Amino acid sequence: MRQSEIFTKILKEAPKDEKSLNSQLLVRGGFVDKLMAGVYSYLPLGFMVLKKIESIIVEEMKKIRASQVLLPALHPKENWQKTGRWQYPEMFKLKGRAGKDFSLGWTHEEIITPLVKKFVKSYRDLPVCVYQIQDKFRDELRAKSGLLRGIEFIMKDMYSFHADEKDLDNFYEKAKKSYFKIFERCGLAKNTFLTLASGGTFSKYSHEFQTVTPYGEDEIYLCEKCRLAINKEIIEQEHYTCPNCKNKKLEVKKAIEVGNIFSLKDKFTKTFDFKFHDKSGAEKTVLMGCYGIGLGRLLGAVVEVHHDEKGIIWPSEVAPFAVHLISLENTAKVKKAAQDLYEDLLKEGTEVLYDNREKSAGEKFAEADLIGIPLRLVVSERTLKENCVEVKKRDEEKAKLIKIKDVNSLLRC
Length: 413
Ligand code: ATP
Ligand code: MG
Known about the structure:
This protein is α+β, with helices and mostly antiparallel strands. It contains 12 helices and 23 strands. The protein has a 5-stranded mixed beta barrel. The chain has a 5-stranded mixed beta sheet with strand order 20-19-21-22-23, with helices on both faces. Helix 1 packs across helix 8 (295-305) and helix 2 (44-63) packs across helix 8.
């Protein structure tokens, strides 16, 4: 894509009301725009990153055989009354013209449970595992952290249904591994820790995936020995000791909760009277788990972790483009060489952003650093003298010259 075709502009400074690091960089780079606190538009570059994250999730979900659905965001009051969550403080409520009450979905247990119940009658119909990637709405009071805490935000929420605890536990472990794989592919492997959280009335623990960064909203207690973390809510109940290895040396860290998984057991299935016939024909209640990842929060967390004073440094799998091709000096020779290289790269299937705009080298480099594409290629009179382009990785200081004819093979390895 040519950079001149992107309708947004890079901002020299972040708007004053953007306080968080992720939103400052993302707004300046033209990835997102704030409509109001907690509500952001994804602009072309931001939407590309979002789609990259989405496809990582979809690929990993395929591996654990979860099927994708899309549930309504608009819900009837009745489902929520049934579970006693109609009074949930973060839920937005609306009234239709005929007086009917609706709500906007902040989670979907109340919708998915009666839906799956329609199709599952026997043990042969189980397990079922479905997920969606959809907007959620929560009346958050402190929406000050950019994409980390939205009032409208995109969540991947998954729900699994099982015949017995063993099957639920097995799937729960599979989902846990799969979530780590997702965070690893997003470049957060080193910073993301499995964290024990309250399991509510139905399990001893739930598990959060917490990404350590200095501006995280949460606080975790990270075991220096086994690297399990315990969240702030339950550390007192655990007597400030790691429940896994009994170590008392815990580091307190700020972190972002990028994902959360719960073994719900019969919490919702009982309320919706969701039963199945087991092998002997006896009726049993279906058991359930739920698994969430915030896509916007994950995108924001990637920025909080991967940046320097000049801008974002996208990990390769989530970068909007693989290569940022920049032409300097608008001479016919440079223009032609850059254009040829651009077409060559496209032919090879490389995702490339081509900066063919008439701007100074300084401006182009500063903007490229802010946008954060992993590899920069520069074509100029100087590089062409040697039939070369200048190559620089976003996270390295040094640039080097390589022959134009070798660019494609460099990108392949
Ligand atoms: P938090 O404690 O941060 O409010 P939560 O426990 O309410 O999170 P869940 O209901 O478990 O979150 O939602 C699943 C996932 O959705 C979270 O792990 C997080 O990644 C994401 N998420 C939750 N609330 C928001 C929000 N307001 N904005 C963006 N993402 C969110
Ligand atoms: Mg919350």
